[in-house]
Amino acid sequence: FEVSYSVPGYQMAVFTVFTDTVIRHYRTSVVSKALLFQLIIFTTTLIAPFFIAYSTRGFWKREGAYREQADVTFRRELVMSLAGYKHSSRIAFSSFSHLNHLLSDQLRVPLIRVRLDNVMYSLT
Question: What is the four-CA torsion angle of 80, 85, 87, 91, rounded to 10 degrees?
Answer without folding.
Answer: -30
